[in-house]
Amino acid sequence: MPRVVKRKLQKLRPIVEYNKRGKGIGQAHSEMQSYIGVLARSRVPLVDKKWSQIPKDVKEQIWEAVDMAFVVGQGGKKSVLTSAAKKWKDFKSTLTRHYILPYTNDKEKLSHPPETYKFIEKAQWDAFVASRLSKDFESVHSQHAQIREKLEYNHRLSRKGYAGLEDQLEETMPGVEIDLSTLWKRARQDKHGNIPDPKVAEKAKLIDELQKQVSEGKVRVDGSKDVLTMALGPEHPGRLRGVGAGISPRQYFNLPKPQRVSFDDRLKESLRVLLQEETNKMEAKAKEEALRMEARTKQLVEAEREHFLSQLSQLIPNFDPGMLKQRISQSPKNPMSDKASCSGGEVKSLHYEDDNAKNGEHQQEEEKEEEKRDEEKEEEKEKKDEEKHDDKVIEVGDYSNMEAPSSLKSLCRYVEMTLLPEDKLLQFTIDKEVFGGDRDTFLLHEDIAQFAGMEEIGATVVAVYMRYLHDVLKQANMCSMVGFIDPATVSANSGTIVERSRLVAARLQKTDGEQIFMMPYNPGLVSLGFCFYDFQ
């Protein structure tokens, strides 16, 4: 590539451009890839080894040469050496398919390197030919040939790749959305716009029909469930068709990456909400009980007053009960309260009516102040009780005398000796076949303590137990009979009822119609409910 060498001598370095997904595009990128191919063929020894076994100084020479000729930018050294590894491997494959295997019976042809690649040393060529004619390589070549035959829809892209094709279409088709299905179809057309392969042409026709239905609103696409997936079927997990290597579904569709911290925060928030709900219920119950006790106390005081007045009437001649009626009937104290007293106003109430008239107003003011102080002390006590309830820590307790299986005792011992001192979590991976999607979940030591103590458990514990049930069903070959729905996606704190309904519907649509589904859910109360869907 003399033009690249000339620019290097002039210290001119073209800038390599990249698209929004970090893939190289433009003329400078194409020239850089060609230059990397030249370096990989000419500077890397032709040996029967893997790229990882090539000396580091050789790789460093390739990177320095490319860095002197181009401003690589965000791709960096890693992308350059990755490209060099692929081109070196492709070069050896080209030599094998075109210059060795067709001439296995012609020793003269194999005795010297091809004219096109005169830079290959004779000793390296002879060693490479011998490795390619060995029985070990014949077995490996046969396996790769079988894998290659399974590829049905071969593209016709040049070195520009999908990134260059997308850049070209954006220039020639301004304002038109270039989706994966369009890129996949254009990558398999020849220079005249035709698709020679009948199988590919059939899929391209199906793509056109689906695109028309989407534009008319008859078919709806959502994220990875796009037109290309509808036409070709689901892709392997983690892979994506129509964009080239190095782009994952999460990167292309801007899917949020699950974070452990956010999950922990959500779990703690759920626990806090449940704790607050339980606290509110306890407070409401306590207030109701206090009102009931107050009403009962008034009845008891009234009965006691009537009995007391009847006794006075028998002991004192011409006794008028109306003389004490007004004083005694005023807001009696609760005999169950620690503030209740048998001294003070009750004794003074037996004095003559003229003494009450002098001190009545003063006593009423004192009673009001005393009641106010009582209310303030009661509120302060309730506040302290609430703070103690919020700061309550769930402990595993004494597991030695616990009547439980030895495995549960071992788990409690592990929580007490390891999880609590080191503030760790138990992590579980729930496979896609359990709830229809891969996800990780975590158990806190509080969850295990609640489970071991036969207390109320949360949805996370239920989800982990459902994973265990799935393993049992799998061993018994019964997974086709029973399915599960993740309680975290359908409980009251997991979004609106419309969103939860859609998640349930999406999960049920993935069944073959013969399964019974178990769906624990939290309707917003303390307890859990269970639904069973039987398609039969």
From TrEMBL:
<protein>
    <recommendedName>
        <fullName>Non-ATPase subunit 9</fullName>
    </recommendedName>
</protein>
<keyword id="KW-0175">Coiled coil</keyword>
<feature type="region of interest" description="Disordered">
    <location>
        <begin position="323"/>
        <end position="395"/>
    </location>
</feature>
<feature type="compositionally biased region" description="Basic and acidic residues">
    <location>
        <begin position="348"/>
        <end position="395"/>
    </location>
</feature>
<feature type="coiled-coil region">
    <location>
        <begin position="268"/>
        <end position="306"/>
    </location>
</feature>
<dbReference type="InterPro" id="IPR004252">
    <property type="entry name" value="Probable_transposase_24"/>
</dbReference>
<dbReference type="Pfam" id="PF03004">
    <property type="entry name" value="Transposase_24"/>
</dbReference>
